[in-house]
C-alpha cells in the first residue's frame, strides 16, 4: 500500500540531522580483522509513533479508516529520525567497534578473539530496544563484505563490482618497516 504524505510533508519542518559519510565508515574498518554486517528488518517500521501522531498518518480505504502505529515510509524526516535513534542507542559503540548507516549496522573488530564480545554488546542493545534484524541480509564474522551498497575489505576497498576496473598489471602495494 502506498500513502501520499505530500501535504503532511509540506507542513513538517525539514530535519537536517546528518547521515554518516560512507567513505568515513569504510575507512574506519581499516585494520579490522573481522566484520559483521547487519540489516534492520523493516527499519523505519520498528519506530513506534506517539499515540497523538496516529491521526496524522491515517488513511482511508474502501473498508475503513486506518492509521499507522509505527513510522511509515514516505514521511520527509524518516531517515534523519532513524539515524538519530541508532546514533543514540549505539553511542557507546560508535567509532569503537560499530558503525551505523540508517538501518545498516557494521560491527568491526581489530582482533578475531574480540569479535564475539563486540557482537554480544550489539545484540544486548538490539534486545534492549527490541530491534529486529533481517537474517537474509546479515553476514557475521567475515573479513570483508557488502555494507550499505559499498564493499568493505580491510585490505582494499572498492566500489560495486560493475564499477571496479581492476588493477591488473600493477604491483601490489607493500608497507615499509
TrEMBL record:
Region (Disordered): 151-177
Cross-referenced Pfam families: RVT_1
Entry coiled-coil feature ranges: none
Basic and acidic residues bias locations: 167-177
Domain Reverse transcriptase: 2-141
Domain of life: Eukaryota
Protein name, as recorded: Retrovirus-related Pol polyprotein from transposon.6
Organism: Sesamum latifolium
Amino acid at each position: 500500500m502506498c500513502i501520499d504524505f505530500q501535504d503532511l510533508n509540506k507542513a513538517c519542518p525539514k530535519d537536517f540531522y546528518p547521515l554518516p559519510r560512507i567513505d568515513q565508515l569504510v575507512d574506519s574498518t581499516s585494520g579490522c580483522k573481522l566484520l559483521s554486517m547487519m540489516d534492520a528488518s523493516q527499519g523505519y517500521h520498528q519506530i513506534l509513533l506517539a499515540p497523538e501522531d496516529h491521526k496524522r498518518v491515517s488513511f482511508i480505504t474502501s473498508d475503513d479508516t486506518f492509521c499507522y502505529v509505527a513510522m511509515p515510509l514516505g514521511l520527509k524526516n524518516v531517515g534523519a529520525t532513524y539515524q538519530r535513534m541508532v546514533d543514540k542507542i549505539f553511542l557507546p559503540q560508535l567509532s569503537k567497534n560499530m558503525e551505523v548507516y540508517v538501518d545498516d549496522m557494521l560491527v568491526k573488530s581489530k582482533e578475531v578473539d574480540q569479535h564475539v564480545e563486540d557482537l554480544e554488546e550489539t545484540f544486548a542493545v538490539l534486545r534492549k530496544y527490541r530491534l529486529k534484524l533481517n537474517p537474509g541480509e546479515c553476514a557475521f564474522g567475515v573479513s570483508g563484505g557488502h555494507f550499505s551498497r559499498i564493499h568493505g575489505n580491510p585490505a582494499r576497498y572498492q566500489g560495486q563490482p560493475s564499477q571496479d576496473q581492476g588493477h591488473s598489471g600493477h604491483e601490489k602495494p607493500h608497507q615499509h618497516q
